[in-house]
Amino acid sequence: MKFTIQKSTLQGALQQLGKVVPSRSTLPILSSVLLSAKDGRLSLRATDLEISQIITVDAVMSAEGEVAVPQRTFLEITSEMPEGELTFEVQKNNQVQLTTAFGTYSIMGKPAAEYPSLPSVDRQQAVEIEGKLLRRVIDKTAFAVSRDDLKPSLMGVLFRFQEDNFIAVATDSHRLVRYTYHEPPKGGYVGDNIIPVKFLNILTAYLENVDMVTFNIGENHIMVQSGDTELYTRIIEERFPDYETVFPQDNDKKLVVEREEFLSAVRRVSIFSNRTTHQISLKLGADGLNLSTEDAETVSAAQEQVKGVFDGEELMIGYNANYLRDVISHLDSDTVKAEFSSAVSAAIFYSEQQREGEELTMLLMPIRLSE
Amino acid sequence: MTPPGAANPQRLIAHIDMNSFFVSVERLKNPALEGLPVVVGGNPRGRSVVSSASYEARRFGIHSAMPMSRALRLCPQLVIVPPGFSDYQASHDAVKSLLADFSPSLEMASIDEGYLDLTGTAKLWGPAAEAGAAIRRRIATETGLSASIGLSTNKLVSKVASDEAKPVGDPRLGDVASADKPSRRFLTSEGVLVVPPGEEAAFLAPLPVSHLPGCGPVTVQALKAEGVRTIGDLAAMNEDRLLQRFGDHGRSLGQRARGIGSTHLSAGETRKSVSKEQTFAIDQTDLRHLRSVLHRQCEEVSATLRRKDEVARTVTLKLRYPGFETHTHSRTLDRPSNATEALFNAAANLLEANLAAGRPVRLIGVGLSNLGRIPLQADLFAPAPAAQAARREATIDALRERFGKAAILTGESVHLLNRDRGARR
Fold this sequence. Notes:
The complex is a heterodimer.
Chain A: E1 2-6, H1 7-18, E2 32-38, E3 41-47, E4 51-58, E5 60-63, E6 65-70, H2 71-80, E7 85-90, E8 95-99, E9 104-108, E10 125-130, H3 131-141, E11 156-161, E12 166-171, E13 175-181, E14 191-196, H4 197-204, E15 212-217, E16 221-226, E17 229-234, E18 253-258, H5 259-270, E19 279-285, E20 288-295, E21 300-311, E22 315-320, H6 321-329, E23 335-340, E24 347-351, E25 358-364
Antiparallel strand pairs in A: 1-5, 1-7, 2-3, 2-6, 3-4, 4-17, 7-8, 8-9, 10-15, 11-12, 11-14, 12-13, 13-25, 15-16, 16-17, 18-21, 18-23, 19-20, 19-22, 20-21, 23-24, 24-25
Helix pairs in contact in A: 1-2, 5-6
Chain B: E1 13-18, H1 21-29, E2 38-41, E3 50-53, H2 55-58, H3 68-74, E4 79-81, H4 85-100, E5 106-110, E6 113-117, H5 122-125, H6 128-143, E7 147-152, H7 155-164, E8 187-189, E9 192-194, H8 200-204, H9 217-225, H10 231-236, H11 239-246, H12 248-257, E10 273-284, H13 287-307, E11 310-320, E12 326-337, H14 340-354, E13 361-373, H15 387-403, H16 411-424
Parallel strand pairs in B: 2-4, 7-9
Antiparallel strand pairs in B: 1-6, 1-7, 2-3, 5-6, 8-9, 10-13, 11-12, 11-13
Helix pairs in contact in B: 4-6, 11-12, 13-14, 13-16
């Protein structure tokens, strides 16, 4: 295997693949990228067994072949090279030699046969989504996904393609986001898929200037193609919790408040909250809301009054400040509406002015205030 | 409500760190050890490790927690002294009681280090540099031991400062002189380093991230991949990126890198983590047995938390293989817990994910950290607390309290009992 390639082309591909390469893994080969030179094209592939990415780039081929090369070392040396061409050649025993105008570098590669094979996306159905819409969906939901691998069903965003609309839901069981788009994506596909958040975070970088994205949905995997890049992900085969039933129906205490003011007050007050619980208290009353926190451990405390309109019986409710901040910062109108019922039940948060064609609603569970 | 700290914003916290504490105590007992490469630790033929190494020994690359056999290979003329813990405890008590003379607010963080809140003591002991020198002198004259002292506005910066105040080695032996250290300008006298208010971040900035408490090898490696080498690089790192990369830990990393730290001293012995580990006489390959041992360990550490009404957010599994290769694997729970099963599930998952099948294990252990009070974060899908499980564990705890550990066993650990009995027969 031998080819010549522009340094910047190679570097760009290796950088992108770095997001897929797992930082730690029990399978050492996953720290490598697989290079395949075939039919005058060079493709580079990375996988963490859940997500795979292939990038195809231009290179001048001298001999076809395949080899796996450690991604980090390969990227490091490529990044340090000056602009220009470099030649990549596989010698005996998968020894890889890189040659530039300045010198030669040698890395030990691994046989391509050891590299995991690409998932096949069987019996696929296609769904077309606008790039801009998908970016927005990921931006609004991904933050609420659980990082706890003891709850695998919550480690992705539920994409629910229905006949007359499209819904995306994410939750870590303390907060929940539901994004509804009142138009079904093109393709006529109907079905639910839990898509790993890591895949969505990688995908979102490719959506910047893309009009339409096609999701090729198979039995166990989804493949998305964008230009010279193909991204694959395993679908999370778990039951997503029944999120509709947890939406409260009778939250009669209503707050309307300026979003920016609310958010910056939460940010300031939370600095003084306990580092483990991040607990802050909201006192809701006729004047709006009063935020406060106290931490016995560091002997710190803070309180702020935020103007707002509150309609209902007075209420004192506690939250994890990080969760509250996440929720407010992902709403996007100037004013936020929140509806409460009691100090131990879920509150609903939403933008006062929803964007046309969509509905974005968030739920947040409180921290029961300690005595 | 007035923030309690507001009336007195400027704090002065000293961190006192004893230099090669165990070795120094041994040298007091036996002055012939002076100038020799000495370590304190157990029998080199067994599986013991270095507990403390003299600066002469460190020049050979020996450090604490290194297997004794390896230390001996690095330095065949090494002098190994068996530990005399009662002597160390006596010296610890002596240091503690003299520190208490400087301020009533004292926290001994371990046997060889402690924090002292010197806020408002300028009239008694002079400015920070003088107070630090006085403490150091008094430790030397009364106990014959040497200490390094860091002073600043918080515990974190003072801890790093005392580390920077440590002797690098002996210049006569050709070691790097401390003159090369970037922190040199903060050194006010031998072994005393003062970081004035407002200069915390500037002091930390040039130091490698590995010097920052809470930045273990894994974090350091991950930061390196982000191009972060010094604490200054870390302080300059985008908060969103840190959060994305390390979660909540990232937020606190960023704050610490900017020199923000706690000033709260707790008088009692503070517990930052609870752990339990076991070294096997014969390396183990049986996964079922490893799981059972792990389960028993989880029962013990979680019961400790339950007694204190605490919960842990992080579960760490420690595995040691033959050849002393030691790995720790951690998982941060979404919901802090003190329930045996939740903690065991996390630990067992770590075991299954990280132990290559059939690989012999020399030591297994579990640690719980990120401790806090019981959180009352409600759950959307399980609003009622898992009362039944909690009641069951309370009952088990009570039974064991009265009748001993073996009074009641869980399925996971029953076969350990049979095994133990078998061994006794």
